[in-house]
Amino acid sequence: RRERQRFVDKNGRCNVQHGNLGGESSRYLSDLFTTLVDLKWRWNLLIFLLTYTVAWLVMASMWWGIAYLRGDLHRSHDDAYSPCVANVYNFPSAFLFFIETEATIGYGHRYITERCPEGIVLFLFQSLLGSIVDAFLIGCMFIKMSQPKKRAETLMFSRAAVISQRDGKLCLMFRVGNLRNSHMVSAQIRCKLIKSRQTPEGEFLPLDQCELDVGFGTGADQLFLVSPLTICHEINSKSPFFCLSQRSLRSEQFEIVVILEGIVETTGMTCQARTSYTEDEVLWGHRFLPVMSLEDGFFRVDYSQFHATFEVPTPPYSVKE
Fold this sequence. Notes:
Layout: H1 26-30, H2 32-38, H3 41-70, H4 91-102, H5 117-145, H6 149-152, E1 155-157, E2 161-166, E3 169-178, E4 184-198, E5 204-212, E6 222-223, E7 229-234, H7 246-249, E8 255-264, E9 270-278, E10 282-284, E11 286-288, E12 292-294, E13 299-301, E14 309-311
Parallel strand pairs: 2-10
Antiparallel strand pairs: 1-3, 2-3, 3-7, 4-5, 4-6, 4-8, 8-9, 11-14, 12-13
Site (Role in the control of polyamine-mediated channel gating and in the blocking by intracellular magnesium): 134
Domain Potassium channel inwardly rectifying transmembrane: 8-148
Subcellular location: Membrane
């Protein structure tokens, strides 16, 4: 069976592209900092390099321009003459003076003199501009590096969801796990059913979102994720799967989006991991294999069985039937 278009990929990426923004695209520039953080790393590095390169060349040209207009370039080797910047006699030397000043290296060979008011003004402008550029770009790079997106890659979801009986009730279940020893603080899980439907008034909703109860009323959606957990949605009269049977599952078209949120214990930043299950990835009459075993003084998790399921006797009828 050909895999159909997903709303959310298995890795959590949303397959939504925004187009024909028109004049609304200017909103990206009004929030330039967030726009830079959202860019891919290659574009961030390119902007980082271009910004500093252009700023360095422009400022070095201004220092060279002051020396040129004052005539310092032709009298730089005259010991009786006091130039604006000592030992600046061409563009490379002006560029080196700017770098030494900006990076606070100060080798001592090139220095500004007190008989150059325009140089003092340019020096103050350079210091302010350099601080602003450093704060903006370095802050952007720091925020991008500290984003918890990579932490979400160590949060696992089972490849398939299963439908079987638990405690005498028909349930939709899937498994989540945390590969790291560091915990997810205040971990919470939510599920959305994405399915097209038509209202009684004749309006067609192509991607209607419906909440799947995974224990919101009982607090079961608040996870203590130190070992793999099986998340359970009870199929009852309030569930959108109330009329779902083993036979009707073959002809249904829906997508279950799972969202796991929590605070990374080591950084204190909020992390979100997502995945989805289409109707072909929902196995009727299956149950997950156990992955926990008791060893000498500790519990061991066998992740090689994390996605494994086995068949169990399950009535093929819907809850309604």
